[in-house]
C-alpha cells in the first residue's frame, strides 16, 4: 500500500527548463560551444556536474582542468539563480496546490526528491515548501540520479519503507532512480523518459483520479 508520494521538482512541480537552458546557453556561447534546446532536453534530472559534461561533448579543444570546470558550474549557477528571482507564487496553479492538499487529506505523506541544489530556493519562491513533510535535494547527496539515494533519503525522511512510496518523475534518470529504490513509478508525460513505468499522468491533478 502506498503511503508516501515523492515528487521530483523540475519538470513535475515547477518548470525551470527555460532558465536552465538560458543559463547553460550563456556559458556555452561565452566558450564558443554549440548548445541548443535539444541538448538541453538531455539535462533533465541530470546533476549540474553531469550536465556540464554533456555540454562539453561539443567542445573539441584541450580538456579543461577540474578547477576550471568548477568555475564554469559556478558561473552557470549564478546566471540560473538570477533567473530564479523571476519565480513567484503564481507560477504554481491553484489546481496544483489544491491537488497537493487533497493528497494530504487522503492521508498521503508528501516529499520532494530533487537533484537540484536550488530546490529549497525554488520551493520558497513559489511558496510550495509548507506542503511537504520532507525535502531531499541535491545538497546532501553523494550520488545523483539514477542512483536511488535521493529517493531513499526522502522515504527515510517520511519514516516509510521504500515499497510504501511512489515517485512522480519526468526524466529517465529519475525513473531509473525510483525503480532502483524499489518504489512505484509515476511518469509525468512530456519529459525524456521512454522506460516502462507503473503509471502515466498528463498533469499533476490526475493523481487524484488514478489509483496510486
Ligand atoms: P541545480 P530535478 C534537476 O532537478 C534538473 O532537472 C536538472 O536539469 C538540473 O541539472 C539538476 O536538477 C541540478 O540542478 O544546478 O539547480 O543543482 O528534476 O531532479 O528536480
Ligand atoms: Mg525532473
- What ranges have pLDDT less than 50 throughout 5 or more consecutive residues? none
Q: Overall mean pLDDT score?
A: 96
Helix content: 40-55%
Q: How many strands?
A: 6
Intertermini distance: 9 Å
Summed up, the helix count is 9
The SSE string, one letter per element, is: EHHHHHEHEHEHEEH
Domain module tally: 2
- Which class of the largest domain in CATH terms? Alpha Beta
Alpha-carbon Rg, integer: 17 Å
- The gross shape turns out to be globular
CATH architecture of the largest domain: 3-Layer(aba) Sandwich
Structural class: alpha/beta
| Major sheet | 6 strands, parallel
Bound molecules: 1,6-di-O-phosphono-beta-D-glucopyranose, magnesium ion
- The CATH homology group name of the largest domain: HAD superfamily/HAD-like
Strand order of the largest sheet: 3-2-1-4-5-6
What features would you highlight for this structure?
212 residues; six-stranded parallel beta sheet; alpha/beta; DNA polymerase, domain 1; 42% helix; Rossmann fold; 2 domains
Short description:
This protein has helices at residues 17-31, 37-41, 48-55, 66-84, 94-105, 119-125, 149-158, 172-180, 206-209, and strands spanning 4-7, 109-113, 134-136, 165-169, 184-188, 199-201.
Amino acid at each position: 500500500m502506498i503511503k508516501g508520494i515523492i515528487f521530483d521538482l523540475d519538470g513535475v512541480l515547477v518548470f525551470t527548463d527555460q532558465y536552465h537552458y538560458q543559463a547553460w546557453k550563456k556559458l556555452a556561447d561565452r566558450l564558443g560551444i554549440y548548445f541548443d534546446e535539444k541538448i538541453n532536453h538531455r539535462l533533465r534530472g541530470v546533476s549540474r556536474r553531469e550536465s556540464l559534461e554533456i555540454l562539453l561533448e561539443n567542445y573539441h579543444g584541450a580538456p579543461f582542468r577540474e578547477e576550471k570546470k568548477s568555475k564554469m558550474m559556478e558561473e552557470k549557477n549564478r546566471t540560473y539563480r538570477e533567473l530564479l528571482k523571476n519565480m513567484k507564487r503564481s507560477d504554481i496553479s491553484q489546481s496544483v496546490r489544491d491537488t497537493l492538499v487533497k493528497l494530504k487529506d487522503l492521508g498521503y505523506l508528501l516529499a520532494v526528491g530533487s537533484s537540484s541544489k536550488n530546490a529549497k530556493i525554488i520551493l520558497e519562491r513559489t511558496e510550495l515548501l509548507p506542503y511537504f513533510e520532507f525535502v531531499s535535494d541535491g545538497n546532501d547527496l553523494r550520488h545523483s540520479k539514477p542512483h536511488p539515494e535521493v529517493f531513499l533519503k526522502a522515504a527515510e525522511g517520511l519514516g516509510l519503507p521504500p515499497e510504501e512510496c511512489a515517485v512522480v518523475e519526468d526524466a529517465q534518470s529519475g525513473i531509473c532512480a525510483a525503480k532502483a529504490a524499489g518504489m512505484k513509478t509515476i511518469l509525468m508525460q512530456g519529459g525524456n523518459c521512454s522506460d516502462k513505468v507503473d503509471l502515466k499522468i498528463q498533469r499533476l491533478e490526475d493523481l487524484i483520479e488514478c489509483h496510486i
